[in-house]
UniProtKB/TrEMBL annotation:
<keyword id="KW-0812">Transmembrane</keyword>
<keyword id="KW-0328">Glycosyltransferase</keyword>
<keyword id="KW-0472">Membrane</keyword>
<dbReference type="GO" id="GO:0005886">
    <property type="term" value="C:plasma membrane"/>
</dbReference>
<dbReference type="GO" id="GO:0016763">
    <property type="term" value="F:pentosyltransferase activity"/>
</dbReference>
<comment type="similarity">
    <text>Belongs to the glycosyltransferase 51 family.</text>
</comment>
<dbReference type="InterPro" id="IPR023346">
    <property type="entry name" value="Lysozyme-like_dom_sf"/>
</dbReference>
<keyword id="KW-0133">Cell shape</keyword>
<protein>
    <recommendedName>
        <fullName>Biosynthetic peptidoglycan transglycosylase</fullName>
        <ecNumber>2.4.99.28</ecNumber>
    </recommendedName>
</protein>
<comment type="function">
    <text>Peptidoglycan polymerase that catalyzes glycan chain elongation from lipid-linked precursors.</text>
</comment>
<keyword id="KW-0573">Peptidoglycan synthesis</keyword>
<keyword id="KW-0961">Cell wall biogenesis/degradation</keyword>
<dbReference type="InterPro" id="IPR001264">
    <property type="entry name" value="Glyco_trans_51"/>
</dbReference>
<dbReference type="GO" id="GO:0009274">
    <property type="term" value="C:peptidoglycan-based cell wall"/>
</dbReference>
<keyword id="KW-0997">Cell inner membrane</keyword>
<feature type="domain" description="Glycosyl transferase family 51">
    <location>
        <begin position="52"/>
        <end position="218"/>
    </location>
</feature>
<feature type="transmembrane region" description="Helical">
    <location>
        <begin position="9"/>
        <end position="30"/>
    </location>
</feature>
């Protein structure tokens, strides 16, 4: 019994270490190489292989500054100040969840969301959250803020099988991600909270409120 327990423990430790090595080596490679596929993209493809993933990588200078500012405003206003975790935001989210009696806010930063998109999955669990923390910690120490934002804008979901700013700009507006206007950037940033829903419900009240918030505070956003 003792030998079985030790073997099981060693296997579990080995798996955990292998996962960390995979994440570390991926982050090293992606410091300079385009990210062409993420775990979220793969999960979408595996769920429906007949439906192609829409995604085209674009370098940082090929992405509209309007979109950068709008997304930082919508998703992580303290992006340039924190080191991966917005502790005040997390505390606020916990208090909101306690008041509502359910999870209504996550408090995740752009870095945390990117770690999840690259390596993990959407289903909430302590295991996933713990791995997200580790991956975020590594990313913030290996990548610059510019690289984090660049990869995030190239890999975040903007609709059904639509990933990254270029695919989103082409799908919604028939133009490149570099030429997005202020209003178009605000729309794309606003739908990130629930992209598949807002893709089909563009007049939803929640989306209008989100767009108004981004429009009001966008000029204050700091970007790399």
């Amino acid at each position: 019994m003792k030998a079985f327990f030790i073997r099981t423990l060693l296997i579990l430790v080995s798996v955990v270490l292998l996962v960390q090595l995979w994440i570390f080596s991926s982050l090293v490679w992606w410091r300079t190489q385009p990210v062409q596929s993420t775990m979220m993209m793969r999960l979408d493809y595996w769920a429906e292989p007949s439906k192609p993933i829409q995604h085209q990588w674009r370098d940082y200078d090929q992405l509209s500054d309007n979109l950068k500012r709008a997304v930082v405003t919508a998703e992580d206003g303290k992006f340039m100040q924190h080191h991966g975790f917005d502790w005040e935001g997390i505390q606020t989210a916990l208090e909101r969840n306690k008041d509502e009696g359910k999870v209504v806010a996550g408090g995740s930063t752009i870095s945390q969301q990117l770690a999840k998109n690259l390596f993990l999955y959407n289903k909430r669990s302590f295991l996933r959250k713990g791995q997200e923390v580790v991956a975020t910690w590594m990313m913030e120490r290996m990548w610059s803020k510019q690289r984090i934002l660049e990869v995030y804008l190239n890999s975040v979901e903007f609709g059904d099988n639509i990933y990254g700013a270029e695919a989103a700009a082409q799908h919604y507006f028939g133009k490149s991600a570099k030429s997005l206007s202020r209003d178009q950037a605000i729309f794309l940033a606003a739908i990130l909270t629930n992209p598949k829903y807002f893709q089909e419900h563009r007049n939803a009240g929640a989306l209008k409120a989100r767009k108004q918030m981004v429009q009001r505070y966008m000029r204050y956003a700091e970007i790399p």
